[in-house]
Amino acid sequence: MGAAVIESFYLKEHLGFKEEKLNFHNGLIVFSGPSGSGKSVFFNALLSVFGLDSCEASMLEAFVDEQINLDEFGLQNDDVTIFKCVKQKSMRYFVNSQAVSQKVSKQIAQNFISYLSLRDTSQFENASLISLIDALAAKNDALHTDRYEDYKKYFLKFLDIKEELERVKSEEQKINELKELALFEISRIEAVKPKVGEDEELLEFKRRLSKKEKIIDTINNANAIFESERAVNNALELIGQNSALFDECMNFLKSVFEEEMQKLDELEDTDIESVLDRIEQISSLKNRFGSIEEILTHLEKRKNELAHYENIAFEKKELKSEFERLDKKIKELAHELDISRQKALKPLEELINGYLQKLYLKPCSLCVKSCEPYILGTKEVSVELDGIDIKKISSGEFNRLRLAFISSSNEIKKGNGILILDEVDSNLSGRESMSVASVLKEISKNYQVFAISHHPQLSSCANQHFLVQKKDDTSFIKELDEEGRIEELSRMISGKDITDKARDFAKSLRRDNK
Q1: For the residues 437-456, what does the mean pLDDT come to?
Q2: Which residue intervals of 110-143 are DSSP H helices?
Q3: For strand 377-385 and strand 81-87, is the pairing parallel, antiparallel, or unpaired?
Q4: Parent domain of 183
Q5: Measured between alpha carbons, how far is 49 from 68 in angstroms, rounded to an integer?
Q6: Do residues 73 and 104 make contact, with C-beta atoms less than 8 angstroms apart?
Q7: How confident is the model at residue 302 (pLDDT cuts 50, 70, 90)?
Q8: Which of 125, 146, 124 is nearest to 134 (CA)?
Q9: Is residue 191 part of a domain?
């Protein structure tokens, strides 16, 4: 795969912009223009089409001239990847015409776009610094990457064992209470020994018992029908009707009544008090644990827990032994990592400081301190510029320090993609601005670089130069030809009233930086 490049970008109705369609080349692409003309608004739209920012444009669309692997996101690949967002009731995002969330669009874009906003400190975070050190260490030591992978593998095992050991220790502290509860619930359930379906049978017995006297009285009253049985048979015989159906019905009634009376007689032989006690016992269990099936499941669970509690001392001993083994192993691997990283530390500092010298900055230091083992090792790295915490340096110094790290990373990792910079040369002198321009020009051999510029030095080095202007509250962008570039550089040099001296300087900048 080659380097991803934004080939074209379309914008419709975003704040001061009505409609813009821009085509981009490789290399360094600079946007300039008077303050308030809409440069930052345009960059907001450019980032938003990829989900890296949010805006309220009616429509944004970007063509990325590179096949990006979309398989892991469940999306279809194509030779050109098209990012699009459209404002309806809310912003909707699409990649190759397939709807995605803003989060997914952002995740895809972050694989090939790096956006560095003002005071973005991500490059100076510990993880980024160690990644840079590891990249340089791996170039000088073929085993470094494998060694780090081994460390991570053992460290993740160590974390799992540590978590298990902490869980066991926590359980151990309350184990007596847990054992008592488990034993109490086991004995309570086993004392009753409920059976599936037993509760329904007992409730049916209770219902029949409660209706016993009423059923007997009703059947006795109904037996009067049999006193008229002969009279009915005589009447049917007299009128010439067959009595078979009537006889069948009467026989059925006798059978039903006799069967029911037999069941009621059996109730007399039942220990009713024990049945009622049984109903109460099962009802109490059901109120506590649910259905009988759930009661029996809970019983099995408690028995397993009890077995675990009884074996917890042995489990703790085994876990502690494994914990100590892994702790020793990761410290050994971390020590080996530290050795190869330490070898890479000074060359990395020299590389960064070489760029800092070009950028007219004093040298920086990579400060290393020991820490508890974590996923990256047992050391943490931070940056100081000439002994000063980078949080305390000026924005101009910060931007140039950031460029030195980008350039060093580019040289070590030979990366490529798209780099979007926000006002990277603000608050700089002409000499400092030219140093930034030279470094960005070098970076743009591998990256497509988008930058807002307030200085003619950076703008003069651009492969493409776009002018952002505003007229009657409407912003618009145009790509400048050579004549237009000279005019814009002259404006940046001398302001609105362009002098011949400014125009001559602009021409010399272009001659020197073509």
Answers
A1: 93
A2: 126-140
A3: unpaired
A4: 143-346
A5: 16
A6: yes
A7: confident
A8: 146
A9: yes
Residue 48 lies in a domain: no
pLDDT of 97 > 90? The answer is yes
- Is 65 inside a domain boundary? no
Residue owning tokens 């493409």: 464
Evaluate if residue 10 carries a pLDDT over 50.
Answer: yes
CA distance 347 to 350: 5
Please answer whether residues 425 and 395 qualify as being in contact, where contact means their C-beta atoms are separated by less than 8 angstroms: no
Tell me if 39 sits within 8 A of 32, measured CB to CB: yes
Model confidence at 470, pLDDT cuts 50, 70, 90, reads very high
* pLDDT band with cut points at 50, 70 and 90 for residue 237: confident
| Biggest CA-to-CA distance, the chain | 143
Cβ–Cβ < 8 Å for 389, 403: no
Instruction: Write the CB contacts of 119 (distance below 8 Å, at least 6 apart in sequence).
Output: 395, 398
Q: Reply yes or no on whether the pLDDT at 507 is more than 50.
A: yes
The token duo for 148 is 């780090």
Report yes or no: 359 and 416 within 8 Å, Cβ to Cβ. Answer: no
Q: What are phi and psi of 50, to 5 degrees?
A: -100, 0
Task: Establish how many alpha carbons lie within 13 A of residue 216's alpha carbon, considering only the half-sphere containing its beta carbon.
Answer: 10
DSSP 70: -
Report the candidate in 451, 438, 301 with the shortest Cα–Cα distance to residue 360.
438
437 has a pLDDT exceeding 50: yes
Q: Comparing C-alpha atoms, which of 159, 124, 123, 197 is closest to residue 389? A: 124
CA distance 328 to 157: 13
Number of domains in the chain: 1
Do the Cβ atoms of 3 and 416 come closer than 8 Å? Answer: yes
Looking up tokens 């000074």 gives: 346
Q: Is residue 60 part of a domain?
A: no
State the Cα–Cα distance between residues 397 and 409, nearest whole angstrom.
Answer: 18
Residue pointed to by tokens 């397993």: 304
Q: Which two tokens stand for residue 260?
A: 């029911």
Per DSSP, what are the bridge partners of residue 379?
A: 370
Tokens of 285: 């269990």
Q: What strands, in cross-sheet order, belong to the sheet with 377-385? A: 364-374, 377-385, 388-389
Q: Which residues contact 21 (CB under 8 A, 6 or more apart)?
A: 8, 9, 10, 11
Q: At what angle do helices 126-140 and 395-413 cross, to 10 degrees?
A: 30
| 3-state class (DSSP) for residue 95 | strand
Nearest CA to 480 among 462, 507, 506, 493?
462
Reported as a pLDDT band with limits 50, 70 and 90, residue 222 is confident
- Taking only the tens place, the pLDDT of each residue in 104-135 is 999 999 989 988 876 678 889 999 999 999 99
